Amino acid sequence: MFQYLNGTQRKKMKIKLTWKIWLLIIILSLSLVSIFVTPNFLQKGVLITNVEINSTSFEQGLRQGQILKSIDGNLVETLDDYYDYIQKKFPSEENIKTILGTNKGEFISYSKNAPEITLSEYSLTNIKTGLDLAGGSRALIQAKDKQLTSEEVNDLVAITNNRFNVYGISDVKVRSVSDLTGKNFMLIEIAGATREDLKKLISEQGKFEAKIKEEIVFTGGDKDISSVVRSGHESGIYSCVPSSEGHHCNFRFTVYLSENAAKRHAEITDKLGVNSTPQGNYLSEKLDLYLDDKLVSSLLISEGLKGRVTTQIQISGSSSGTTRDEAIKNAEEEMKQLQTVLITGSLPFKLEIVKLDTISPTLGKEFIKTILLAGLVALLAISLVVFFRYKKFKSSMALLLTSVSEIIIILGIASLIRWDLDLPSIAGILAAIGTGIDSQIIVLDEAKSLFLNIKQRMKRAFAIILGAYFTALAALIPLYWAVAGLFKGFAITTIIGITVGVLITRPAFADMIKRIEE
Amino acid sequence: MIIILSAGSSVAESLPSKQMTRVRIPTGAFLNMEEKKLKKIGKFHDKYYKYLLLIPLLLLVFSFIYMGFFYSQNNDFIYKDISLTGGTSVTINGDLDSGELKQFLSDKLENLNVKEIYDIITRKQIAVILETKTDGEMTKQILEDYLGYELNSENSSFEFTGSTLGESFYKQLLIAILFAFLFMAIVVFIIFRTAVPSLAVITSAFLDILMTLVVINLLGMHMSAAGMMAFLMLIGYSVDTDILLTTRVLKRDEGSLNRRIFGAFKTGTTMTLTSLLAIIFALFVVSSFSSLLTQIFTILAIGLGFDLFNTWIINVSILKWYAKKKNEN
User: Fold this and answer.
1) Which of A147, B71, B121, B277 is most buried, taking the most CB atoms under 10 A from its CB?
2) B3 against A110, higher pLDDT
3) Residue A501 in contact with residue A435, Cβ under 8 Å?
4) Contact B191/A389, CB-based, under 8 Å?
5) Nearest Cβ partner of A468 from B93, B243, B263?
6) A231-289 pLDDT, tens per residue?
7) From CA A40, how far away is CA B24, in angstroms rounded?
8) Residue (of A233, A228, A230) closest to A257 by Cα position
9) What is the CATH number of domain B87-161?
């Protein structure tokens, strides 16, 4: 009917691009780049998601995150390429050679069985899904019968991180979280690990042992270590000097041992010989530090400690860097790392798993499919109402396009800040889009007003939109801290969405409508 | 006829002046028709709007009595699911008979609840979900004994929440909703700077929540942590239309009061109906698959339904009353 225009009129009505519309186009393009230009963009191969610890491949240096490009010289471009080949080759009667070509070089193994690795095709986008969609394990840990202070939680997080490193589990996030009641927790999220792995790792603080040869000198826990000094003048960097590599900084800190540990230390060191080096005289054996039975560090023992019963030992070390600041930073890190190892097992509390989720990755895909379909259907419903109500093709299209671009920008920002989209985040996107459409309807209706000129009308529309924006923002803030941050995603995506709406998409939409109406 | 239906607005409004020549029917006729209709409705509303407030008042009294009764019975405002009481939710992939599972395991797993989920397109069953108050380890053991195979991350998902944590989550979500409401109220006061209109907005949002809560409880729905999040969304949606209405009525001076209310009504109902329809459509898609999203969407749908009622009966009546009083002074 009358809203369909002939050719010349269409030309006249052609939307002129204002700077607000240009801004939207630019942000939209950047979002698309942020979503789709991945580090593996245009790379061929499959992603190694897990390498069995202690397997030959692992010992050779094959790690998760590397990209498998070939096997025995045959190109691997899809998962089928790999598995078809492997199925024909294994199992074999005797050890046979396999060459895995990756982006980090070739790894050769001899085995009767297929390499113990898990693969996946790497994602085509930078959008990361949260644990509840991608699968994995998540645990919320607190102390048994005790409120953890934020310092204690930070120690616990450092210790746990150390132990995950020792085990070679890298795709893990350990952080401290607190909730509205001020309780502190440790939150662990692991992409691949199984429930049992996780439980074993986190049901205790870990085991620390200091050994000379095979003899235990002291272990973690207050039985042997009274305290590790981590601040004040008994701990820190005491000198920095220029060196051939740039700068060199020395740190030291004091560890207090129990009487028993001090005696044991004296007995064991008494038997050792003394080596002379240009840096000084040291005992013939080193003090080896073990974390969960794995060697993490070896310390030279100075001559003066031989056979001496002392409850106070000083540990010193050094680190270098190209600049003085870098050297200081490295030394501090190294000191902290050593201190963390030494306090492992010493924290005065037992751990309790208060939440443990292990999510199978299988259903995640179904879930995403469902959500996409639901989103599409919802958009269809919105189109129906909007077309029916306004009967204006251009305005309605502009409304829908604005909403779609809001989704894209939210996803773009989520990719940029590496936010894992979990279910609460997706609910948040829905909420943001919903309020976005509400605002656009306000713009459309204000534009039709008989009073004032179009510019003033838009100004009035924005007075309402801003009011709605600030109330929504205020309502979301408490959620950021509630339930140990598990629903943070909802607050984050909604806040991103409505802010993008107010700053970018809605002003652009208003300009589009202005042009259409004029 | 089409024209009136289309936008509910007059032809002169919806057409740029250049195109006026294209309309063959004299516009005055329509303008008059709509003007007459509007005046008639306006007159009716002017006469009865105070009485209209009686309906929500009755509902409010009923809601309070019901919630008071509910609280005395259950010592709480809602029925909570395991995400708020503590317990385990297990998803076992595959085509398992939920009835059989429930029959055999009910006496072993505390408060067992079993449901099946289906692929939305093929309608094939893809998993069963069990919810129980028994803890994770024990549940796993019992299920493995019954099924005769190991449950691992390939074939199942476990979500365990300790009971203290669940209760703490519940309290925090209540606090979050309370504060959200409070912050929203503060912002509303800052925007309008007058007591009555601000209170009208806040009352309407409060009633949306209260009435939705009553319906949820009447339906016997067990609320999850995610479901409580839906109430936060509801606050946001509910206030949108109220702010629109209050701004149009109080901060504008063109046209009659009724005309401004009617204009806001058209815009506001379009907003709410769009959201409502989108949610109902989405609800239809997710209902066989995700109980979490189903709950969020159900709460929103009920809440938006009440929002239509609360905004356009309570809020409008209070505002009209207020605006008329202000004019008289």
Assistant:
1) B277
2) A110
3) yes
4) no
5) B243
6) 887 888 888 888 887 888 888 888 888 888 888 888 888 888 888 888 778 888 888 88
7) 61
8) A228
9) 3.30.70
C-alpha neighbours within 13 Å on the C-beta side of residue B31: 8
- The fold of the A46-120 domain, in CATH, is Pdz3 Domain (2.30.42)
Q: Which of A161-182 are b and which e, b meaning 16 or more Cβ less than 10 Å from the residue's Cβ?
A: bbbbebbebeebebebbebbee
What residue type is B307 in one-letter code? Answer: D
- Taking only the tens place, the pLDDT of each residue in A69-122 is 888 888 888 888 888 888 888 888 888 888 888 888 888 888 888 888 878 777
Q: Does B137 or B217 have the greater pLDDT score? A: B217
Question: Hey, are the CB atoms on A427 and B293 less than 8 Å from each other?
Answer: yes
| Residue with tokens 């097992």, as numbered in its chain | A345
Number of neighbouring beta carbons within 10 Å of residue B74: 12
Quote the minimal CA–CA distance from B252 to chain A in Å.
9
- Candidates A194, A385, A427; nearest CB to B296: A427
Q: Which of A203, A249, A213, A221 has its CA nearest to residue A342?
A: A221
Contact A475 B186 (CB under 8 A): no
B53-80+165-328 shares its CATH topology with B87-161: no
Contact B289 A377 (CB under 8 A): no
Q: Do A468 and B161 touch (CB under 8 A)?
A: no
Nearest CA in chain A to B89: A357
Does 1.20.1640.10 match the CATH number of domain A7-38+363-517?
A: yes
Going by their DSSP bridges, the two strands B222-223 and B79-80 should be labelled as parallel
Q: Which residues of B touch A484 (CB under 8 A)?
A: 169
A386: its two tokens: 């909007």
Residue B147 CA to residue A248 CA, distance in Å, equals 62
Q: What is the pLDDT of residues A151-168, one digit of tens each?
A: 888 888 888 888 777 776
Is a pLDDT exceeding 80 seen at residue A411? yes
Q: Sign (positive/negative) of CA torsion B176, B180, B183, B185?
A: negative
Structure tokens at A269: 């060191």
Domain spans of chain B, in order of start? 2-37, 53-80+165-328, 87-161
Question: CATH: 1.10.3370.10, 3.90.220.20, 1.20.1640.10, 1.10.10.60. Which one for B53-80+165-328?
Answer: 1.20.1640.10
Rounded distance between C-alpha atoms, residue B296 and residue A431, angstroms: 11
Strand-pairing partners, residue A315, are: A253
Average confidence score pLDDT of chain A: 83
Q: Are A363 and B126 in contact (CB under 8 A)?
A: yes
Q: What is the pLDDT of residues B8-25, one digit of tens each?
A: 333 334 444 444 444 455
As a residue count, chain B comes to: 329
Chain B contacts of A481, Cβ < 8 Å? 176
- Residue B83 structure tokens: 């995400």
Considering the domain A136-206+351-358 in this protein, what is its CATH number? Answer: 3.30.70.3400
Per-domain residue ranges of chain A: 7-38+363-517, 46-120, 136-206+351-358, 212-327
Give the mean pLDDT of chain B.
85
